[in-house]
Automatic annotation (TrEMBL):
Lineage top rank: taxon: Bacteria
UniProt keyword terms in alphabetical order: Hydrolase, Protease, Serine protease
SUPFAM superfamilies in UniProt: alpha/beta-Hydrolases, Tricorn protease N-terminal domain
GO biological process, one term: proteolysis
Location of region: Disordered: 32-71
The species this protein was found in: Amycolatopsis balhimycina DSM 5908
Name of the protein in its database record: S9 family peptidase
Keyword flag Protease: yes
Pfam families: PD40 (PF07676), Peptidase_S9 (PF00326)
Keyword Hydrolase recorded: yes
GO MF annotation: an example: serine-type endopeptidase activity
Every Peptidase S9 prolyl oligopeptidase catalytic domain range: 458-650
Amino acid sequence: MAELTAEAVVDRNVPRTPRLSPDGRWVAFASSPVGRTGKHPVSGLWLAPADGSAPPRELAPSDAEDHEPRWAPDSGSVFFLSDRVERGTAQLYRVGLAGGGPEQLTDWSPGVHAHLWLPGWAGVGNARPAEVEARVPPADWSLGVFVAPDPDFRPADPRVRVVTAEGSRAGEPGRAWDTVARPDRLWLLDPRTRAVRSLADFGERHVVEVAARPDGGVLAVLTWSVADRDPGLFEPGLHLVDPGSGAVRDLGAPALEASSLTWWRGETGWHLGYLGLTPPGLVGGRAVFEAGETSGAHRNLTAGLTVCPAELVPAGDGPPLALFSEGLDTTVRRLEPATGTFTELTRAPGTLQSLSVADGEVIAAVASTAYEPDVVCAGSAAGPLTHLAEPPLRGIVWGTQERLSYRAEDGLELDGLLILPPGKTREDGPFPLVTLVHGGPDDRYADRFHLNWYPSGQWLATAGFAVFLPNPRGGWGHGHAFAVSVAGAVGGAEFTDILTGIDRLVDDGVADPRRLGIGGGSHGGFMAAWAVSQTDRFAAALVSAGVIDWRVLAATGELTRFDAALGGPDGSTSPITHAHRIRTPTLILHGEDDTNVPLSQADLLHHALRDRGVEHEYVVYPREGHSLRERDHQLDGLRRTREWFSRWLAPERPVSKQDG
């Protein structure tokens, strides 16, 4: 039996962004190790037959980051981004299916961030189809579209940000905003001549996403007012752009957090949809919206559902497909244009991610189930899907993963997961129990494989712990009402939801009440800090990149208004308010360069515990942001957290069921 080591966790390759060729025969995808060994990440571009008839092979290997594959319309070549010339600065490349040296198409000094190809292009050197000739001006044929900053952009010095009271009262921006971030623009590329020219004038607005209509007509473009997340994200715009003339037509303001622009053809013509935050407010689930081309209205197609759309993807010119988070599972659904509803095609236990569709019938995705790490799969949209590669980490005995279903104190139906140590059953309990709270809170634990660089379920289970992965209210998978219920009230009913699950495991003889630990990262870190400020029942805690003061975070973090909406106006849900109650030994982990939850949050907790003599360790990881990316830091985090819980949750004599 193979042993699970920290190295095995961070060195395994994880696939992402699978893309089906238009003819449905091939899948291109990127793959990279969990941990980064140098200053810049390294990832490879892989090609596999969609029917699984041969193992994947790497296209154009290099020691660079190759990512974001996109297919040529004739399925004969793959376009991708790579920083193989200058690390950290991606350019656009093209490679044939036979592999070999890729062809560099751009030399754009700020780097390229995204790309697509206008429909109707049949490949470099091919004859131009007559129907495309009639539709697109000759000078614009064979054009690619890429998103990148203007090389001539220079940030203002000094930067001045002015907000007028008149504009605020009118509900308008009412401000002048100098940004240090380079706003992205829209550019056209002729791959034959390498000529680049600007497409469309959005003024100072920042281009976020672009999608081409399948018939080669207009482009849909999503923008922010400026490149800064705040206020840019809160002043979004949706536009139609003529690729020939560059003319722009506005479609009004989309929902916040808009993404996944998707076209489809209906009985009344072309339709445009996207994912966005469910209104009203800044806390809640996501929804599928349809943007009206004439009215400017944006209609919610998933209102009232008790599930959450996670991805929306085009299926040629037909109705789009979507992935839905449904409890512990994921479903593939197709939009029914006549009714505006979604019909289930297949249900996958665990997760499907990065969905890609060819001809509306063949799909590819990254799948994970309870005992199988992420692997690229393909097959019929109605299922089943075929693995295109062998899942990693074979030969290791995993802890038994069990689905949980229970009711909260107020009767709300909840779910979660229990992972027991390898080879153990409930009858071998009670076990030391570590409860790991997910981040977000707009996230969830699906019935997938739980092993990653942070202290995940299988990592702790293989060390002898039972692990509880709860899905309290506030997360995804149960609709908007479930997700929005924590707005301004984090740490309230969601904390009770977690305690109710722990109590059930104690009552069932699974968890030892004297050996309970709690931990998490980001919002999960907040919940761990909140838990030990509310009760002494936990023997140890882990707070990783956790929120300690919501009011300070709303003024210093990058999520600003979202954090204010979660934490509420008076700060009473902040762990720092109740830090004088904390007696639990606590491990604090934080990235020094975290902009989501700045290091000052960890400083607040460290100082509060230090001044009160509470035993704790405070670990700061240089060069790291909200997530640990460097391999050595990930190894340290895995080992340190397992050692911390082992230290505090393993008494000299195990407690038996007869001991109570």
